[in-house]
Each structure stands twice: as structure tokens, then as C-alpha cells.
Specification:
about 200 residues, about 0% strand
Length: about 200
Amino acid sequence: MGLPSKIQLAGLVITTASIPWSPFGTSLGMGLLALSWIVAVATKSTIKPESKLLAIALIACFSWYSLGLLWSENMFEGLAAVKIKLPLLIVPLSLFYVKRGLLTIKIAVKTLIISTLVAALAGLIYGGFIEPRNYSPYISHIRMGLLLALCLGLLILEKKWTFTIVFGVVALVSVWHTKSVTGVGMIAFSLFYTPVAL
């Protein structure tokens, strides 16, 4: 595994581990992903993307948002909005143009699932014993509900049923306490496709 690939793996792990916890950690991971592409370009080790159309579409989407600054009445708010969309540029540049290790995506997915589970459990403990009714102290309850649904869907696809059931129970308890209607709906959507995975 070359240096760009190692930086990419570190960036993905830090990003996926931080998403349920810390915007700073997520930004740090994104910075490493951007660095992996820069190093790949500098060392002339970039690759041709497997899905060139998707890569171009994501980069074009970010470019379109950036062009929107030309019509922005408030440049500071416009730049803040573009900053939020920056992953649309960074992620495809790294994932599509930097050679990945064989287990890179699997490691990143497992990191996201475990980190989300721990964050949900920590939130339940925090809301139950430290600050009553604040069951999602790290990120918004809507985002947490979406993460729980995403991770539950990924586990269903993996067909690791014991861990999937444990995760599902924690996810349902979490969205019940946070009253995340979006989370409940998306978890139900994930469970809807369980028979397909069986």
C-alpha cells in the first residue's frame, strides 16, 4: 500500500469514527482525504476511476454550488454554504482517483458502525443519568437517527444477525428517546428490505 493509500485509509477511519461524535474530527479526516489526492497527484500515482460518470457528477455538483457564489448577496454565508458541500469534491477525488487498499472500505464501514453504536449508547447513558432528556448530546438527533438507519441497513446486508439485532434494539431505543421521526422512518425503511437479505 503506497503513501496516498495509507493517508486515504487514515482519513476514512478518522472521518467515519468522528461522524457520530465530532465535527472537528470529521473535518480532520476530510483534510487527510484531500491530502491523499494531493500526494497521489504529486507522485503521479492517480488511477482512472471505475465509475468515471459518478465521479464527474459529484465534482460537477460541487462546482455548481461554487458558481452560485456569483449570485450570493452575502459572500460570507455563501462561502459557509460551499464549505458544507466541500465533501462533494473531496470524497470523489480521493475515493475515485487514489488507489484503495483491498480492505479500506470494509474497515471504514466497520469503524462507522461501531462508532455509531458507541455514540448511541453513550447518548442513552448521558440522557438517562447526566442531563435528563438529552439523548443526543454530540450531534443532532436527526443526523444520529439517519446514521443509525444507515448502519442498520449495512449490517443487514452483511447478514451478521446477532450483532444486527443488538444494534437494531439500541437504534430503536435511541430514536424513541430522541423522538426522531426521520430516524424511525429510515430505520423502518432499512427493516423493510430485511427479507431481501435473508
